[in-house]
Amino acid sequence: MDNKEISQAVIGRLPRYFRFLGELKDEGVERISSQELSDIMNVTASQIRQDFNNFGGFGQQGYGYNVAYLYEEIGRILGLDKTHKLIIIGAGNLGQALANYTNFDRRGFLFKGIFDCDPSLYGKKIRSMEIRPMEELEDFVKENEIDMAVLTIPKASAAQVARRLSHTGIRGIWNFAHVDLDVPDGIQVENVHLSDSLMKLAYNINRSENQMLPGFESQLMDEK
Description:
Blueprint: H1 8-26, E1 31-32, H2 34-41, H3 45-53, E2 65-66, H4 67-77, E3 84-89, H5 93-99, H6 103-106, E4 109-116, E5 125-126, E6 129-133, H7 137-143, E7 148-151, H8 155-165, E8 172-175, E9 188-191, H9 194-210, H10 216-223
């Protein structure tokens, strides 16, 4: 595969391909065509072929895709052929829930530490991790060769914490704070705005209800 730029829309579909292919592999399916995969995933067969062609294609005309091989290759593209060491910053409800979600381990995402600024939480254990004070952050990241940090903290402190992390050699931030972070080149950020997703769901429910109302076609024209 060359170093051409891959669109975020294509990248966003890769985890979904990986998940469906994993289910097919577990069911004993050995090969599948783009049309069969299309029927399962509700993505057009043409789109599937275009997506895979970004990485050199994986199929053979008249044969389709080898499910196990395609699953393995997409996992490799996603970086799931190696382990990633993570820390969580923010030991509130969300931070604790993420730390307790064991499915991350199966994908090679290993939580090594959890931090907070509340002294009353220090020493409390989440799984096998003790909640640590923020003063230990930089040393812990460097000593444990942490790859990624998960931010589950208020947005007011997220930018400051991101700046601290940028000096530790961290490579990625999974950001649940409701603010977009400005970090140096070389640090990848994935912003997760939970309320945005919920509002999108509300919009789709509202739109579905409005489709049953008179005059909806003219309303659609107004939206464009």
